[in-house]
Design goal:
Length: 248
């Protein structure tokens, strides 16, 4: 089930560990999508901490929050872009979104297939989505002191297979949160160092979250072209004998 929006807000905005996690994940989002000029950027679940870099340049930013989770106004001090919605019926037109971020929206859903169908619906052709979920083999999924300790953790293979089932095409993948989920001063002070080290030796260290970027590709149905049709002669004249030339 979805976590409560107040718990999510308190973690990401009012704890040092949450702010460190927010920065580590957002840095990777920016590395994948450095700009969104003129694009519509949406987030589902509790993705708003990751959307702030796009507020100034995007055509539109939308923070979708499921009813089971609850909603909070965001961003503070600016025009609200948060929307309370049903998790499987979003108040968005089909194909309107260019970039979609899903954080705490897939692993906590009781109907993940319907959520993915809605993700597919709102994405435009060639649009990109970024799914961020707890890593089954990471430390963060084993601790209920953070939001990543709830819901279904994934392996990269499991996440990739589920998204392919819903016609998404995998593009790039990344991991984040190499620092342990601890509020001790040592880990918080060295969090940036651990992130840098983890990205260099990622086959050895397991990050706390998996990040998989996918795209929506619409393939044109393959139909026989004119050349193929010409190779197949009309048969309406079959059975009619060819005329035999008579004597001159």
């Amino acid at each position: 089930m979805h976590l409560d929006v107040l718990d999510l807000r308190n973690f990401y905005y009012r704890t040092q560990l949450g702010r460190a996690a927010q920065k580590a994940i957002r840095d990777q989002v920016i590395a994948l999508w450095p700009e969104a000029t003129g694009r519509t950027v949406a987030g589902f679940g509790f993705a708003v901490p990751l959307l702030r870099p796009y507020l100034a340049e995007a055509r539109r930013v939308i923070g979708l929050m499921p009813g089971q989770q609850g909603v909070m106004p965001w961003p503070v001090g600016m025009e609200n872009v948060s929307v309370l919605c049903e998790e499987t019926r979003w108040p968005l037109d089909t194909g309107i979104v260019d970039r979609l971020v899903v954080l705490h929206g897939l692993e906590t859903s009781e109907n993940p297939s319907a959520v993915l169908e809605e993700c597919w619906r709102v994405l435009g052709p060639g649009g990109r989505a970024l799914f961020i979920v707890p890593n089954r083999s990471g430390l963060w999924s084993r601790s209920d002191r953070t939001p990543f300790g709830y819901g279904r953790p994934y392996s990269m293979g499991q996440l990739d297979a589920q998204l392919r089932t819903h016609n998404f095409v995998a593009e790039r993948h990344q991991t984040a949160l190499y620092v342990p989920p601890s509020s001790r001063r040592f880990w918080l002070r060295t969090a940036v160092m651990w992130e840098r080290l983890g990205h260099r030796v990622s086959p050895v260290m397991s990050g706390g979250v998996l990040m998989l970027e996918v795209s929506k590709q619409l393939h044109t149905p393959q139909r026989p072209g004119l050349r193929a049709a010409v190779r197949k002669p009309l048969r309406v004249l079959e059975g009619i004998q060819k005329p035999v030339p008579g004597p001159a």
